[in-house]
Every structure is written in structure tokens, then in C-alpha cells.
Write a structure and sequence with these properties.
Blueprint (H helix, E strand, L loop, with lengths): L17 H31 L5 H33 L2 H31 L8 H8 L13
Helix pairs in contact: 1-2, 1-3, 2-3
């Protein structure tokens, strides 16, 4: 017990390796990129199919990008597995974090990020350029003579 009767629990003083931190940051970017690709496809389909139910539209968008996601993740995973197997002890933590991140990141992109759109009740609205044009003042007519 520490003074004052408060018990404290702390993690062991083990600092993560720099390569592991690099792997975690790499995977964060990788996962965000995959999510943006699927969200962009949903946005495109929202413009194209205005009357389609949202559930079907999101399902179609995921199906259209699923092959890209699987191929990209699979090929990246193959190369990282080679790093894990042949890279030696120096790259083992880095490659293990990448392997874990590729699997979890791909799963979360397809099975968590897109259902969140339904859960958050994505609304169909006007496109961003149309909304932006509403707020802009109309250009004034030029004076005769085109003065500069």
C-alpha cells in the first residue's frame, strides 16, 4: 500500500520498440485508407441510386470494394509474413504488429465501419457542391468596358 491507503497498479516499465510504434502508426493509416475507400464508394452510390434503400446501397458498395480490399490486404499480408519469417529478430516485433493490424484493420473496415453508417442513420442530402453554391453570393455584373 502506498501512503494514504491507496493501492496503485501500474504497467511494467517496458518501453515499446520504435519499430513496433512505427508498425502501429502504419496500420492506423492503412486502416483509415481502407475505410475511406469504402466510404467514398458509398458516397458515389448515394449519388447514383437515390431511391435504393440504404441497407442495400451500403451492401452493394461493400461488395464492389471487397475484392480490392481482400487483394490488397492479402498481398500486404504475404509480404509481411515473409518479413516475419526471414527478417530476423530485429523485424519480428514490427512484422508481428503489422500482421495483427492488417487482419484487424481489414475486419474493422468491412464489418464495423460500414455498419456504423446504418447505426448513425446516414441521411441522404444534397451534394456538397450544391450546398456550397447556396451560401456564395452571386458575382456582380462587370462594369461596361471591362475595367481593370
Amino acid at each position: 500500500m502506498s501512503p494514504g491507503g491507496v493501492t496503485t497498479v501500474s504497467a511494467p516499465a517496458v518501453a515499446p520498440a520504435v519499430t513496433t510504434v512505427a508498425a502501429v502508426l502504419t496500420i492506423a493509416g492503412y486502416s483509415v485508407n481502407d475505410t475511406v475507400v469504402i466510404y467514398d464508394r458509398v458516397r458515389e452510390e448515394l449519388r447514383r441510386y437515390k431511391k435504393m434503400p440504404l441497407y442495400d446501397l451500403i451492401n452493394m458498395a461493400v461488395n464492389k470494394t471487397l475484392s480490392r480490399t481482400v487483394v490488397t490486404s492479402g498481398l500486404t499480408l504475404l509480404s509481411v509474413l515473409a518479413l516475419y519469417g526471414f527478417g530476423g529478430e530485429v523485424l519480428r516485433g514490427f512484422s508481428l504488429a503489422l500482421i495483427w493490424g492488417i487482419v484487424i484493420g481489414s475486419y474493422s473496415t468491412v464489418f464495423i465501419a460500414t455498419p456504423l453508417l446504418l447505426y448513425m442513420k446516414l441521411r441522404r442530402g444534397e451534394s456538397a457542391p450544391a450546398k456550397a453554391a447556396e451560401g456564395k453570393p452571386k458575382p456582380a455584373a462587370e462594369a461596361p468596358g471591362g475595367g481593370a
